[in-house]
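Design a sequence for this backbone.
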């Protein structure tokens, strides 16, 4: 199987072509099912209907090695649907991670200022020697490559903790390849799948343009940039 690339396609069709038990760790950020649009009008495919959710996680479970882990971000307004899909696939819920932000993404009944992910197990993974905490500070990514771009600084500790060195990290909803860039920066193999040709193109450019380590450095730089200050003031 060819690794260290991002495939353009629907993960519900691409994952069935992958061998069983090929991934050491799955780290993914699927659509939150919220019909998201950013200020520039950028949107996300499959962000309304949930028909892809069960098949995608069924396949994710199949391609994950036994006794291994998956971390999936999710939209808290649709927790019930995500939970049902993970359980139906066979995953055990073994952790919940909160990412507090220094700014609010939206403000209505509350100032919404955190992201969430679940830690899901296939079988019984061995605990890491030094387990990381389940509260991980968020840094603003700048959303330069993708409207919901995840910061490398929150992805790398998850990869280092849950994927053996040299192992394969799979992201079936890869967007602009943040997971893949993070995996590469810490010496893991990577494989991504992305449905939208625009974001797939951005991901390919990003993977080709950055050498290992540079992307993480740039992300840290952006976290302290004026855009964070702006978001904090605007919240
Ligand atoms: C929340 S975004 C991921 C953003 C990514 N974490 C980043 O930092 O760029 C989810 C992505 O999943 C893609 N997507 C939606 N349905 C998909 C499917 N069936 N197969 C593959 N990708 C899909 C969307 O186009 C979108 O780019």
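Sequence:
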């Amino acid at each position: 199987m060819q690794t260290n690339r991002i495939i353009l396609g629907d993960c519900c069709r691409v994952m069935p072509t992958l061998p069983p038990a090929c991934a050491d760790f799955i780290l993914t950020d699927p659509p939150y099912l919220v019909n998201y649009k950013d200020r520039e009008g950028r949107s996300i495919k499959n962000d309304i209907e949930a028909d892809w959710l069960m098949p995608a996680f069924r396949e994710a479970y199949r391609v994950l090695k036994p006794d291994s882990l998956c971390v999936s971000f999710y939209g808290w307004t649709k927790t019930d649907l995500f939970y049902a899909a993970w359980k139906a696939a066979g995953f055990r819920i073994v952790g919940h991670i909160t990412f507090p932000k220094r700014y609010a993404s939206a403000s209505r009944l509350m100032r919404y200022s955190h992201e969430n992910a679940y830690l899901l197990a296939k079988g019984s993974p061995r605990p890491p020697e030094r387990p990381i905490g389940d509260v991980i500070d968020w840094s603003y990514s700048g959303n330069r490559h993708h409207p919901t771009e995840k910061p490398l600084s929150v992805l790398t500790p998850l990869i280092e903790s849950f994927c053996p060195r040299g192992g394969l990290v799979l992201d079936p909803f890869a967007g602009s390849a943040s997971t893949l860039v993070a995996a590469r920066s810490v010496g893991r193999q990577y494989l991504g799948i992305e449905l939208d040709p625009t974001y797939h193109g951005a991901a390919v450019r990003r993977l080709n343009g950055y050498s290992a380590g540079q992307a993480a450095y740039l992300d840290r730089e952006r976290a302290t940039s004026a855009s964070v200050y702006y978001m904090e003031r605007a919240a």
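The beta strands are 5-8, 23-28, 64-73, 92-100, 106-107, 111-112, 114-122, 168-171, 189-194.
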